[in-house]
Amino acid sequence: MMMTFLLSGCLYRGDRQVGGPISYTESVDRIQRALDRFQEDKGILPMITAGEETPRYEKYRIDLDQLKRGGYLEELPAAVFEQGGSVYFLVIDEETNPTVKVMDLSTMQKVNDVQRKVLSYQSSHGGALPSKAGEEAYPGLYTVDLPLLQAESLALPSVYSGETLPFLMDAEGNVYVDYAFDIMQAIDQSGKTPQGDEDLRTWLTDRSAFVPVKSLPYRWTGSEPVPDVS
Question: Model pTM?
Fold first, then answer.
């Protein structure tokens, strides 16, 4: 089930990069230090419990209030949702190398808005998908036709590149973000070729503070990243 967040406030202007995505480097570094000290003292991570069905890059949200109460943080970052901002901070690689990352709630909100429009379209069109050309963009996945939904205002700028990213749907109408452009850009810039059956989303998280919200795993197929809906 898609979770809807009602966003309020604005993004932290002090972290904005002119002409590009927002940088959260200072906030991430500060929370990482607090998280490391908390884990060293307590032997656990300060995380808000999420259900097993929660996607990988949305699951382990950091309990910043717990860090503040314990004296590990003097104040909460202005960018965080609880302070009127538009991000959550979460942990990835929690078992091996707990690493603080940023989850962009503006992306989450746009996906939820598109999801509602897709469901409404299906309801009034006998379950048909509002897809571009009616053809698969990838195996089992279709590109959402925003003009057909009269939803051009929901076009999504990437937190990685600033480029507009497509929305994808599976056969049931579940909506995801297509990060193939950003992944390919990261691979091209590295000068390396992915190996084996790795999930290519790590090419994004290894190079950015952001996690790929509302994404599918990507595999290297035919010299390009392909989302895996299976």
Answer: 0.87
